[in-house]
Sequence to fold (286 residues):
Amino acid sequence: RAKDLGKGRHEVFATGMHTQIVKRFQLEIDLHRAIEQQEFELYYQSIVSLTTARIVGFEALVRWNNPQYGFVSPAEFIPLAEETGLIIPLGQWILQAACQQLAVWQAQFPTNPPLMMSINLSGHQLTQCDLVDYIEQTLQETGLNGESLKLEITETVAMNDVETAISIMLRLRTLNLRLSIDDFGTGYSSLSYLHRFPVNTLKIDRSFVSRMEDTDEDAAIVQTIIMLSHALGMDVVAEGVETAAQQAKLHSLGCEYGQGYFFSKPVDSKTATALLDKQFNNMMFA
Ligand code: C2E
Ligand code: MG
Ligand code: MG
Ligand code: MG
Fold:
C-alpha cells in the first residue's frame, strides 16, 4: 500500500514537472518564431527632470504580443531569452528600434541637451564580444551621438563579475555612451566597488521609493543613496514614482530625475510622441 501510494505521488510530481518542461519548451519555440515574425514592440516610459518637470528622455521597455497567449511580460520572457541566447538577436532588434525612434524624436523635438534614450542590457548581452562594435554601427546608421544613449545595467549583473563589468563599461564609454546602474539597492553592492564603475547615473529601485513615505528607514535609504551618488559624481533617477508626494520628497532630497506612473506609464511610440507634442506646444504658447 505504502509503496503504491509513493508511486502514485511520484507520478503526479513527474506529470507536473513534465507539463512545466513542455510549457517552457513551447515558450522557447514561440520566442524563436516571435523574433522572425516581429511580434515585439517597444514601449517608452518618460524620464522627467524633477527641477523643470520636463521630459528629458525615455526608457525603452520591450513588449511581446503573442497571438496565442496575448501579452507576455518581459519579466517572464527576458530570463528565458537570456538562457537560450535569443537575447542576442532580440537585444540587437531592441537597440536598433530604440535608436531609430530616438533619431526621429530628436529631429522633431530639438532640445539642448538632446532627448535621450535608456536601453536595458542583460548580463548575456554585456559579455557579448561584439557588443561595442554593434552599438557603434547602430549609432552610425542612425546618426545619433553616443551621449544620447544610456545603457542600463542592473546592480546584480554589474556585481556578478566586477572586473569584467568594469572593463566592458570602459570600452562602452569610449563611444561616449552613458551608463547607469539599474535597480540599485536590490542586489549585493559593495560600496568599495561602486566608485570604480564608470557610470553616470544610479537608478534607485522602485521598492525604496514606494516605501519611502511609510517608514523612516526607507526614506533614510533613499536619502543616503542620493547623497552617495552625488559624492561619486553620479546623478540619480528614482524609479516607480507614483504620487505627487513622492515626487516632492525626492526633489527636496536633491534627486535629479523621476520615472513612474505619476508621470506616465510605458506607452507605445505614438502615445509617447503625443506626450512630447504636448510638452512642446505648451512651451511655445507659455
Ligand atoms: P526595469 O528596467 O527596472 O524597468 C522598470 C519596470 O518598472 C518596467 O517594468 C516598468 O513598466 C515598471 N514601472 C515603471 N514605473 C512604475 C511605477 O510607477 N509603478 C510600478 N508598479 N511599476 C513601474 P517592465 O516593462 O515590465 O519591465 C520589467 C523588467 O524587464 C525591466 O525592469 C528590465 O529589467 C526588463 N526589461 C524590459 N525591457 C527590456 C529590454 O528591452 N531589454 C532587457 N534586457 N530587459 C528588459
Ligand atoms: Mg531599466
Ligand atoms: Mg529598473
Ligand atoms: Mg526595476
Observations:
- Residues 59, 120, 152, 182 surround magnesium ion (ligand 2) (CB under 6 Å).
